[in-house]
Amino acid sequence: MEYMERALQINCSVGTLNISGGGHCNIEVFSEIKRVYADFDGALWLNGIDGGSFGEINLFDLVSGLRFFSSKSATVILPYSLYYFKMNELNSGFEDLATLVSEMGWQEATSLTEISITVNSDGNEFFNKYVFAPMTEEEKADYKNLTEFKTYFWREQDSPYGEACVDITAYCGGDSVVRVPEKIQGRPVYGFSYMYVEGVKEIHLPSCLKSITFWGTDYLLDKIVWKGTKSQLVAVLGSEEAVYNLLYVRIANVIECIDGNFTLPEEEFSSSVNDTEEKAPSEALSAADNKILSDEFFAAAKEPFVEKYISERLLTQKL
Q1: What contacts 114, CB < 8 A, 6 or more positions away?
Q2: What is the DSSP secondary structure assignment for residue 216, as one 8-state letter?
Q3: Which of the chain's termini has less CB crowding within 10 Å, N or C?
Q4: What is the pLDDT of residues 215-228, one digit of tens each?
């Protein structure tokens, strides 16, 4: 079938029905269709009338929506995982699944490959089954990021960066090596804020970041790994001095870049240890006065859990 915007009636039994083209396709069936293959760019409405039924409905990835009724149990096979289906809000085009999937938690969406929907017709009860593909390795990694960096917020098209993106505001995982993702659910990660988490030894930062904030001092990370050049990191933090300050207040022992490392000479590192131990909280805070402080710093300073860290010592850097 080619592109269509009209209804089609089928009165005879069909083994396999292939649907191609695009637009909106409305097919009324008065008999049995054993298999449907829909390589179709658009929305489908398959309606079994007077005992008409569908056995198996195979959808290709361009199908934007499905509404169907079958007088017998039917199986719908989808080309993507339930996680992908929910993440991209494809459920809005599927009448049976719209509310169910939107209210489903992410953990459930990663654990299911089938959903059964109860149907009541003329006093008969049966089930339509939706079968999803397994999650890809990329989707599994994305879900891991979603759980470990679950404290974040979306920025829409009106963000300061001119596009929809994600700002991560905390790490909630348990790994000793933290790898900040370049994307979460398809959106680029442009902001990363971090407060000390016990057990973390390394933080790996993607070069796509436009804002980097470290709360507090004395993390003593083994290293920060920046997946860009030294000059790119300087541009994000605002100055070379701001980069060295991360070492001076003992956020990390070394900052590795693809074209070299930032380190403190041994005597300066020893001096930084003594300075951070001897400074009063107010002095340590005033030492950061000439740094570029983020808007988030002033907003967060009003929160009780942040006031504790401000009173102890705070360093934050932002583009």
Answers
A1: 129, 130, 131, 132
A2: S
A3: N
A4: 888 888 999 999 99
